[in-house]
Specification:
31% helix; TIM Barrel; alpha/beta; 219 residues
Amino acid sequence: MSLLVKICGLSRRETLEVALDAGADMVGFVFFPPSPRHLPLERARELGIVAKSRALKVALTVDADDATLDNIVDALAPDLLQLHGKETVARLRDIKEKFGLPVMKAVAVETAADLVSLPGYASVADRLLFDARPPRDATRPGGLGAVFDWHVLENLDLKLPFMVSGGLNADNVAEAIRVTRAGGVDVSSGVERSSGVKDPELIRAFIRAARATEELTVR
């Protein structure tokens, strides 16, 4: 199974095109107003057309209600919903049933104790994403450039596909894959020149670095 590479927080056609041309498997769009990467629905519609059939479109939301999700699905037509808030197992199940889309649940990680929720989420989610636990005073749950201890995921016995995020960049992505044996990596701030502004060369460098690890055994 080949490594999945996701470039998240895209908000401009130019950098979306760079990510697609460089071979990103997934492109992520953020629908969360506190984020500098928040995407208005009309722009999401435009970018969704550009990305269609070229990569999987991922809609990132944080504890969104059904009406918000409905608007996002209508605008973007995502292939996958990324739930990055405090959604419960029951909420995941409700979302899957209502919208008929695969879901990827983000799990905030700092210590092994943070993995206690995995069996419940794994029973419903189609994929998991491990991200660094944000500081208590953070205004958003991800995209902060923080790295967690990847060794927490070492020897993880998880049948569900999973990805790793949190402070990744072209310089450390190979080590993250080596330690976690994750089947995918997700980057946002690590390919930005300033908050919310993607850098074409950093996108290309990250994808090159991730692809260079594909001789490793991934799952």
